[in-house]
Amino acid sequence: MFKETFPSDYFSQVPKVELHVHLDCSLSYEFVHKYRQELSENDYKNEFIGPAKFRDLAHFLTYTGQQIELMQNEQQLRSSLQDVIQQLIHDHVIYAEIRFAPHLHIQKGLTAFDVTSILCNELEILNHQLGIQFGLILCTLRHFDSSKSMETVELASHFQGKGVVGFDIAGDEAGFNLKEHKEAFKKAHKDQIPITAHAGEAKGALSVWETLAELKPKRIGHGVKSIQDSDLVQKLRSEHIHLEVCPSTNIQIDVFPTYLTHPIDSLRKSGVSLSVNTDTRTITGINLAKEYAKLHQSFGWGIEQFFEVNKNALLASFTNSETKKTLIHKLEEGYRFFDKK
Tell me, what CATH number does 292's domain have? Predict the structure, then answer.
């Protein structure tokens, strides 16, 4: 369908879709410096961007706290969303679903309702000002109890259509099971809230099987260890369950030792619907342009492959069908433009 030639600005300028990016893991130096003026850019790199390799996911999650500390009042929350959306626009992302856990931002008096309301209101303003149609996904976390999970899904239900497009579970997959969260996900299904769930990253294919059986999500965050089980790969393919793949983060957490050993290319070739995502732009020090360059260098991905994963991302997105149709047209026009250059 497309030529395999690349203009010099291809990776930065080509249109992209981002389904898996955490608000509290993606703050720029400019944002951080606003609230910690003593922090130099070098300090930011040392304190906020993680090492090339973490011991595991639990070690990785220790890096989120200092960003969360800077997202505890209305001004900080609004500014954080402005910051991340500006990064996405600069990365030529035409559609994104940005996720956060409301209960992580109540340390200084806000309620989880306040947090969600503030961010939904700010998103509405930014969508209107920038001419975009981004959405928010609310996260419960593995270590939360059932009441926090239920409150989160109730917030997702209340703000659905007002900025919130989905419900997720994130956190320490290896350290906590799904027992506390089953009722919240039942409510999500009852209220017709689209579901994604982190699985198959810190644990293996059995974790994906369990998550699919217990929570019945439309998408899986990461899911890369599904490659261990051919029956699971077949299930993902036949049931059109989309994987939100974040290669550089997986390498950083040592899910796989090197980029060349990452299964994203094998999963794509097997027919599984997947997208390419950054996950944690700050901690991993990544954007989609850099991620695409790595995929090209490691697996020879060309314009056709990038178009395929972005179209699959839009098809699997939690936005409405009219928006999907408009964005797919925009994606097609963008890729045709670069194919002609």
Answer: 3.20.20.140
